[in-house]
Design goal:
Distance between the termini: 39 Å
Number of domains: 1
Mean pLDDT: 83
Shape: globular
Largest sheet: 2 strands, antiparallel
Number of helices: 16
Helix content: 55-70%
Number of strands: 4
Strand content: under 5%
Order of helices and strands: HEEHHHHHHHHHHHHEEHHH
Strand order of the largest sheet: 1-2
Oligomer: single chain
């Protein structure tokens, strides 16, 4: 009996693995899983963008292949880390390539995430379809198909409004042609949480502009809450009728933003290199708000990030690690993962078997997935920090850790290390940006494909802590 079970387990393992392609009488047929298609897509777009940015019409002067690859990858993964000056080193054509790649990486990722979950719903047993629908805040799998159009609609509306509002500030300052293009570029970059700017110092020149600060922050907050929340907002406006995921994302976003705003503003208030160097109280509050919300995961800055105090830098790294909503234009471990980890810790301290919130309990599988995502992301941070410590011996550990978390969370904030990276360091950051954009969805996909073990082993107990 045991031998037959082992044989069944071996057969199941063989069936779970399959070649990415097969030969048929019609030719080669590719059989890739959705995460594999997503990874391949990001790689192909990164390479295609590299070719476009190497065209003479894309840059004001020659740039290396590595710089072109870095810029293209940073754009399609909506990160925002830059080794060339987007405003001065790239022509209008080059900037248009970056903006297009940002839109593809942002909205394309959201759309693909919806399609991936649709495929997940088809692969899961019928008894689990309701779980998939609830996690997406959708009443049926058919509603998910309509949500793809909703995502694009929301994006067009938000970006159109953002362009008009930013145009009110930049068109009178720079003229119609330059002002309108800057408005369009920054709107696309903000909604997709990219952090690219045509200004050499990001948005530091507009630190005192309420219109620019509030418009940009509103755009990347809307883009970062996730398409499931947007779909829920489409159906109802009453908070009590929102699903659990929507309520948790909205409340946690508000909580994190307010706590970060209070902490960073207090810590930087008398710092002459950041808020302390601003003239009015209003400018300090505005800059404190922007710096509190931009790490999850926009990448713009209105103050000098490298001049921030160590406590503020640590808070910023924590926010970059958490990220924003699942299946959004942002990355990180995601708000829902962070909430589940907090709830699991609280349940353990209260000696409860399962964490619960708002009269709903979290399954063991959900807790295990959250732990796996957080552990995988943390392990990746350690590996990249170790690698950069070897390739960048002159950089401080603080700058290396900040750069790593920013790249893995596809944030785009930097303490000035990006431009000084060596060739191996830049290649490592390129891989990190792609992994940070693809990783969480891929991990969730493979973990959702449940399999029943052929052998059930005896339970063991280990001392923890």
């Amino acid at each position: 009996m045991i031998e037959r079970r082992r044989q069944a387990a071996g057969d199941a393992g063989k069936r779970s693995w399959r070649r990415p392609f097969k030969r048929t009488h019609r030719g080669i047929v590719f059989r890739l899983q959705p995460p594999e298609i997503l990874l391949l897509g990001f790689i192909l777009f990164s390479l295609a963008g590299t070719l476009l940015l190497k065209l003479p019409i894309a840059t004001t002067g020659p740039i290396s292949w590595l710089d072109a690859l870095f810029t293209s990858t940073s754009a399609v993964t909506v990160t925002g880390l830059a080794v060339v000056d987007t405003g001065s080193d790239l022509t209008l054509f080059g900037q248009a390539v970056v903006a297009t790649w940002i839109q593809i990486g942002g909205l394309g990722f959201m759309t693909f995430a919806a399609l991936t979950v649709m495929m997940l719903g088809g692969r899961l047993p019928m008894t689990h379809n309701s779980v998939v629908r609830e996690s997406l805040n959708q009443p049926s799998l058919n509603a998910i198909r309509g949500l793809v159009g909703t995502v694009v609609t929301y994006a067009l509306i938000a970006e159109s409004i953002g362009t008009v509002l930013l145009g009110l500030h930049w068109i009178p300052e720079h003229g119609w042609r330059t002002g309108l293009w800057e408005s369009v570029f920054h709107t696309i970059s903000a909604f997709n949480n990219a952090g690219f700017s045509t200004h050499s110092n990001s948005l530091m020149d507009d630190v005192g502009s309420p219109l620019v600060n509030l418009t940009i922050s509103a755009l990347f907050i809307i883009g970062g809450i996730g398409f499931a929340v947007l779909g829920d907002l489409r159906r109802t406006r009453r908070f009590s009728q929102f699903t659990l995921q929507t309520r948790l994302i909205l409340l946690t976003t508000l909580f994190l933003n307010l706590i970060a705003f209070a902490a960073i503003t207090a810590l930087e208030w008398h710092n002459p290199g950041t808020l302390g160097g601003l003239q009015s109280t209003g400018e300090r509050l505005l800059a404190g708000w922007f710096q509190a919300v931009t790490p999850r995961t926009a990448g713009f800055n209105t103050i000098d990030t490298s001049a921030m105090t160590q406590p503020s830098t640590l808070i910023t790294m924590a926010l970059m690690f958490i990220g924003a909503g699942p299946s959004s234009t942002a990355s990180g471990i995601k708000i829902t993962t962070f909430v589940v980890l907090i709830l699991a810790a609280r349940a353990f301290l209260q000696q409860r078997d399962e964490p619960a919130v708002m009269h709903r309990r979290m399954s063991v599988a959900t807790v295990n997935k959250a732990i796996a995502v957080a552990l995988a992301t943390g392990s990746m941070v350690f590996i990249v920090v170790l690698g950069l410590s070897i390739t960048e011996p002159g950089a401080s550990l603080e700058d290396i850790l900040f750069e790593t978390v920013s790249a893995l969370g596809t944030v785009g904030l930097s303490r000035g290390l990006t431009g000084d990276l060596s060739t191996p360091g830049r290649l490592l950051i390129i891989v990190t940006m792609i992994v940070g954009r693809v990783g969480p969805l891929s991990l969730g996909y493979f973990m959702a494909r449940e399999s029943s073990p052929a052998i059930r082993y005896p339970q063991a107990s280990l001392q923890i802590g």
